Automatic annotation (TrEMBL):
It comes from the Bacteria. The keyword Signal applies. Residues 1-23 form the signal peptide. Residues 76-139 form the SLH domain. Pfam families: Big_5, SLH. This is SLH domain-containing protein. Keywords: Signal.
Length: 690
């Protein structure tokens, strides 16, 4: 392990410790203990436990400080009568005493087994930083007068949490949190840099190969040294980590345009040539975005100057509204402001002027910015007479999280709202209710829903709708899949009526993103054999007949329509599916089975029509043809998956027969594709034995 002298460590900690929330880390205190235990800074008890909630003794604290700060052991005579050389903590206590981190409780008395209070821990930690005096954080809890300044400094650096009483005993968990922060800041890994690029003449972006974590968005500027081609050092004022942790922006003093620059990052040197002087004016890129408590955000196109961006004279409202506070974000692109009290249902015009970018370019005055305190209103309530779904339509888009909370909707006569769904337009909410009573009407009240700006509606009452006592069970699309390059299968959650099958359609087709035209397509819809919840839709085009429409390597989306009570909430009627390499095959006979001496059954690969007895030949293998007397069903318009052939000539036992097929007779169910009658240059046969 590397050796760190106390003075150097104190300076490093002072410069690099992040001002973070107490306990801010992806790790729990227990996990931090385990990490420090692996580094031999903490040791567990004999039973393997950490005992984080037990009080911490003075000699335990001395041992942790000794290992954490890698203090020299030395070989001094005992400084305390109660800590002899034979005591397990002798060298640790002597080391922290020499480093002036801890002192005795009395003359030549250390009291090694006495507990450490929170305020004592704060004093020792602050002393290790080489600090004195008071901090900026107010101390509201109980604290001794001699420790108040140290407790405030420890709170500044988030080494201890806010407490109501700092005179209580500190537990081992408090020491783990503080020690982990110190260890992380004294073992900084060099940044892994992918590239360096200049953003402006006062900012540089460092693109990283590896994600970095920071409890806030800042990083120690001493890790970066910037010089121009003449050897002049450029000051790095601030280093800000991006939200995704994959880049760092350095804010510097002004860099001369067109000069070669070198940037040292943790000792590794990168170079770039500074860009031409910035002459582009900053602009406001959006209308003010409302935040809670009358706060708003204004986003600029580039980083802006702190003094001009937070000057209240550069912002002016009409109608007597005043700016109360102004704050610039760490990346210097977003101004957050608060206002005086706003009148209800009133819109205010905002004018912004004189805000500069970092190069000194002044924005053009903007007078087309607006904020309002207009509450959302309900414009319509209606019920679907098929499904009994109640639709509530608002005048503007509303808060999506609040819109779906059922307690905002109340109905009289004991009717309960069981589900609320916000539709894609952001303004329509569909409500499902408990069973409605025939011959009744209900009154709906809506209240407490805010718009996207946070303005909360007034209660909207007396919306009446008639009951629907026997609604159609809602249908939901479960899947769409490509059976082949011309045919889709759609599966629903419930059985489909004949009307559903007749009316179902695919619309709004997209192919790898862009929309695909279906204007030239013809569709044939039928139930999927063996299922009452699925349909297959076979397509062809007038121009190409039977083309490949759903091909491998493509992602399609399609909207389903035409089914009664279809759930369309949140795009539930739109589903993605993949293409396939399977081409649309022609139908063919798959099997022939003997039922008795004069009857055979022929089965097909898919539903077919135009079946007649003249479409089949039956021959004894290597023998003569058998005459077919009739076919069942005997209706060419029927769509079937099998037929029964009755023969005039009886079948002979223990013989093999073959069925062959006449061209230009049977087709698929759509009537678009003829059936398979040949394999290459040879007739296609299906054999069966008696």
């Amino acid at each position: 392990m590397r050796k760190i002298v106390l003075a150097g460590l104190s300076l490093l900690l002072l410069l690099s410790l992040p001002f973070t929330a107490w306990g801010a880390s992806n790790l729990s205190t227990e996990q931090k203990f385990e990490a420090l235990k692996q580094k031999n800074i903490f040791t567990g008890f004999a039973d393997g436990s950490s005992r984080l909630y037990e009080p911490m003794s003075r000699e335990q604290l001395a041992a942790v400080l000794f290992r954490l700060m890698e203090l020299p052991a030395g070989n001094a005579a005992p400084s305390y009568n109660d800590v002899l050389k034979t005591r397990w903590s002798f060298k640790e206590i002597e080391a922290v005493t020499r480093a002036q981190l801890m002192n005795g409780t009395k003359t030549r008395i250390f009291s090694p087994e006495a507990n450490v209070t929170v305020e004592q821990l704060a004093v020792i930690l602050v002393r290790s930083y080489g600090l004195s005096g008071g901090g900026s954080t107010p101390v509201t809890g109980r604290v001794s007068k001699w420790a108040r300044g140290a407790v405030s400094l420890a709170l500044d650096r988030k080494l201890i949490p806010q407490l109501g009483d700092y005179t209580v005993d500190a537990n081992r968990g408090l020491l783990v949190e503080a020690a982990y922060t110190v260890y992380e800041d004294t073992h900084v890994e060099p940044l892994k840099v992918r590239s360096v690029e200049q953003i402006s003449n006062q900012s540089v972006r460092i693109n990283l190969l590896q994600w970095v974590n920071s409890y806030d968005t800042s990083i120690d500027t001493s890790r970066f040294v910037l010089k121009d081609g003449y050897g002049n050092s450029r000051t790095v004022y601030q280093a800000t980590i991006s939200q995704d942790g994959m880049s760092i922006v350095l804010w510097t003093d002004r860099q001369i345009a067109g000069l070669f620059h070198t940037l040292s990052i943790d000792g590794n040197v990168w170079s770039y040539t500074s860009a031409s002087d910035d002459t582009t004016k900053p602009t406001i890129v959006s209308q003010p975005v409302k935040l809670p408590n009358r706060a708003y955000e204004l986003r600029f196109s580039e980083p802006v100057d702190q003094s001009s961006a937070t000057n209240a004279n550069n912002y002016q409202f009409n109608n007597g509204l005043k700016i109360k506070t102004l704050q610039l974000s760490p990346d210097q692109r977003v101004v957050t402001f608060t206002t005086s009290d706003q009148a209800e249902d009133k819109t205010y015009q905002l004018t912004v002027r004189n805000v500069k970018d970092l190069a000194g370019n002044v924005m053009d005055t903007r007078s087309d910015l607006y904020i309002n305190n207009v509450k959302p209103k309900v414009t319509e309530v209606k019920i679907d007479v098929t499904t009994a779904i109640v639709s509530v339509v608002f005048k503007e888009k509303i808060d999506p999280q609040q819109a779906v909370q059922t307690y905002h909707y109340s109905i009289d006569k004991g009717l309960v709202v069981t589900q609320a769904v916000l539709e894609n337009d952001g303004k329509t909410v569909t409500l499902r209710t408990s069973p409605q009573q025939d011959g009744s009407y209900y009154t709906l009240t809506i209240s407490g829903i805010p718009d996207l700006a946070g303005n909360v509606m007034d209660p909207s009452t007396n919306w009446k709708f008639g009951a629907v006592s026997n609604p159609v069970i809602q249908a939901t699309v479960q899947s769409i899949s490509a059976v082949n390059q011309n045919t889709l299968e759609i599966v629903f959650n419930r059985a489909l009526s004949d009307a559903d099958v007749k009316n179902v359609k695919i619309t709004n087709l997209t192919d790898n993103g862009p929309g695909a035209s279906m204007s030239d397509w013809s569709a044939f819809v039928q139930r999927t054999p063996g299922s009452d919840r699925a349909v297959t839709i076979q397509y062809r085009t007038r121009s190409s007949g039977n083309p490949a429409l759903f091909t491998s390597g493509h992602v399609y989306t399609a909207r389903v329509t035409g089914v009664a009570g279809l759930n369309a909430s949140g795009g539930a009627d739109t589903t993605a599916f993949g293409g396939t390499v399977v081409s649309n095959p022609v139908p063919y006979a798959t099997q022939a089975i003997v039922l008795d001496g004069n009857t055979i059954k022929v089965m097909f690969s898919e539903p077919i029509k135009n079946a007649s007895r003249f479409a089949f030949y039956i021959n004894e293998k290597d023998g003569g043809e058998l005459r077919i007397d009739s076919i069942d069903p005997d209706d060419k318009g029927n769509i079937v998956t099998e037929v029964i052939l009755r023969l005039k000539d009886g079948l002979q036992p223990r013989k093999q027969y073959a069925v062959s097929f006449r061209p230009d007779t049977i087709t698929d169910a759509a009537g678009w594709n003829g059936w398979k009658t040949a394999e290459g240059n040879q007739p296609f046969f299906v054999y069966f034995n008696t």
